[in-house]
DNA sequence: CGAAACATAGAACACTGTTCGATGATTGCG
DNA sequence: CGCAATCATCGAACAGTGTTCTATGTTTCG
């Protein structure tokens, strides 16, 4: 049983979303496809269990992220850790938003974020909105980055830079009068780092939260 | 051609993500499934075109959202409009994040957000991060709401409240010592409004942005 | 008129999730 | 020990999917 979802995660990690098929998974486990149905009711449950399995690891990794002087620092640290986990596993983003309240470990993570917000001076409604916003932001940005490149860039990172540069060139070739902003940030886009981009947005969100807490 | 993607959008609107199949679409159009391949190379392109088609409408709806006294007000208005469009069409969220830079109308929307940010006093990098953050937040939250209820709640909104209430009850039955935050916000969750929740998070983000612009 | 471009479908293929029924393996117990 | 009951596995089949191929009509226009 543990081997089933463990191998499912491995399969997703190696070849992505579309690679997880009952027959492929069965081949890895050295058995028939129908056998998997003894452990899991359907594919949805398989994905839920796989997601929850890696979220459990995030939970472990963020175990000590509490009790620092500034609750918002803890909040940021947890969010960054979750973001990192989804960045490494793009498939996780897609299957994360669904059933946030159903998958036990996802709920625990939600709670962990919430406990930091509890340390701020906010109304219940404000804290509910704050945690939902952080969670949504992390998942949204991470899923955004989850779009895999066309079919190249499955190897070296040099080609990744080229791919992103080609994108920027495409932007630069647009009409400057009609797309002033795209031109304005084309260079930034060309040399951007995903994690830095995420942290910048997160900091905006947290700055707004701090403003609200200090009001 | 116009009829193809138009009917595809209608199909997605009526019965959701899984209802759009080549055979079902062909039946609606009164023809064979293979005929669709004359207009579109594969299903991915069909979905891209369908997405872009409705984003075009968002573009029209937000045409006048510029030039107000406060650029951030315009930014908020555009974001809310986009959020509304995805709320009405949950399928759009899932297919929105991919190829943001490829689908022309999505790029135009990105530009429209960016032009408001240009009015703020920011570095190119800051404005790049700001627009990406707003875009990611909208899509992330909207996609989060896109998870359709189990299989009920396809009709009256009364049952929706019951469904959400059952969720809240489940939360309330957790161990208060282990889940203090979940208990703290259970009532808020039970009576929450999706749009209000979104706007609250967006306002946090925009407050942080204003802080950065005024610094 | 006739050829070239446009447009349409039916049949088949490979692949997916899923079900069913039969067949082994293991275990507990009288 | 023997044997029934549970646990576990698998092959074969089904319905449904995206996609391709090839053949056939339909329109356009020189």
Report on this structure.
The structure is a homodimer of 215-residue chains. With 215 residues, the first copy, chain A, is an all-alpha fold. Chain A has one domain (64-214): Tetracycline Repressor, domain 2, CATH 1.10.357.10. Chain A has ten helices and no strands. Chain A starts with a helix and ends with a helix. At the A-B interface, helix 6, helix 7, helix 8, helix 9 and helix 10 of A face helix 6, helix 7, helix 8, helix 9 and helix 10 of B. Chain A binds a DNA duplex (30 and 30 nucleotides) through helix 2.
Please outline the helices and strands.
Two copies of one chain form a homodimer.
Chain A: H1 2-15, H2 22-29, H3 43-61, H4 71-88, H5 90-94, H6 104-118, H7 124-145, H8 157-172, H9 180-190, H10 194-214
Chain A binds a DNA duplex (30 and 30 nucleotides) through residues 21-23, 26, 31-35, 37-38, 42-43.
Summary?
Two copies of one chain form a homodimer. The first copy, chain A, is an all-alpha fold and 215 residues long.
Largest sheet of chain A: none
Order of helices and strands of chain A: HHHHHHHHHH
Q: Biggest interface pair, residues each?
A: A-B, 61 and 61 residues
Low-pLDDT regions of chain A = none
Query: Roughly how many Å apart are the termini of chain A?
Result: 51 Å
**How many helical elements of chain A?**
10
Task: Tell me the CATH topology of chain A.
Answer: Tetracycline Repressor, domain 2
Query: Which CATH architecture of chain A is right?
Result: Orthogonal Bundle
Oligomer status: homodimer
Structurally, the number of domains of chain A stands at 1
Structural class of the secondary elements of chain A? Answer: mainly alpha
Task: Assign the CATH superfamily of chain A.
Answer: Tetracycline Repressor, domain 2
The top level CATH class name of chain A: Mainly Alpha
Shape of chain A from CA axes?
A: flat
- What is the radius of gyration of chain A? 20 Å
């Amino acid at each position: 049983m543990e081997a089933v979802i463990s191998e499912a995660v491995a399969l997703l990690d190696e070849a992505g979303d579309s690679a997880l098929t009952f027959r492929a998974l069965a081949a890895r486990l050295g058995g028939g496809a129908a056998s998997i149905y003894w452990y899991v009711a359907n594919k949805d449950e398989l994905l839920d269990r796989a997601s929850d399995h890696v979220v459990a690891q995030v939970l472990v990794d963020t175990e000590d992220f509490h009790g620092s002087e500034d609750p918002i620092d803890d909040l940021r640290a947890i969010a960054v850790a979750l973001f990192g986990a989804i960045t490494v596993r793009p498939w996780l983003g897609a299957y994360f938003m669904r059933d946030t309240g159903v998958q036990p470990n996802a709920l625990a993570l939600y709670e962990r974020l919430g406990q930091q917000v509890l340390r701020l001076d906010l109304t219940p409604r404000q804290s509910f909105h704050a945690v939902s916003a952080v969670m949504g932001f992390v998942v949204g940005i991470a899923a955004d980055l989850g779009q895999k490149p066309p079919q190249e860039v499955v190897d070296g990172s040099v080609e990744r830079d080229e791919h992103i540069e080609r994108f920027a060139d495409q932007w630069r070739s647009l009409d400057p009068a009609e797309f002033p902003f795209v031109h304005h940030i084309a260079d930034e886009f060309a040399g951007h780092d995903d994690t830095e981009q995420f942290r910048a947005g997160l900091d905006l969100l947290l700055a707004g939260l701090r403003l609200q807490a200090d009001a």
